[in-house]
């Protein structure tokens, strides 16, 4: 698989995990746990956006 394809797969994985965490946060009854899950989901979304942006510019984040 190409580097771009691998990076795109990683971005999809990060976004899927962020979605899972958001769904878990919605089900959480403890407000602190809900906040932790939402924060982690937000960080994963931000990371996926950064990696996607690097991929769009043709930059390899592993270099």
What is the average of the pLDDT values?
86
What percentage of the residues does DSSP assign to strands (E)? under 5%
**Which outline best applies?**
elongated
What is the number of helices? 2
Strands, helices and their partners?
Layout (H helix, E strand, L loop, with lengths): L2 H25 L3 H26 L7
Helix pairs in contact: 1-2
Commentary on this structure:
The model has no long low-confidence stretch (mean pLDDT 86). Helix 1 (3-27) runs antiparallel to helix 2. Helix content is 81%, strand content 0%. The chain is an all-alpha fold. Residues 17-48 have a biased composition (Basic and acidic residues). This is DUF6381 family protein. InterPro entries: DUF6381.
List the defining traits of the structure above:
2 helices; about 60 residues; DUF6381 family protein; single chain; mainly alpha; DUF6381
Write a brief caption for the model.
With 63 residues, the chain is mostly helical.
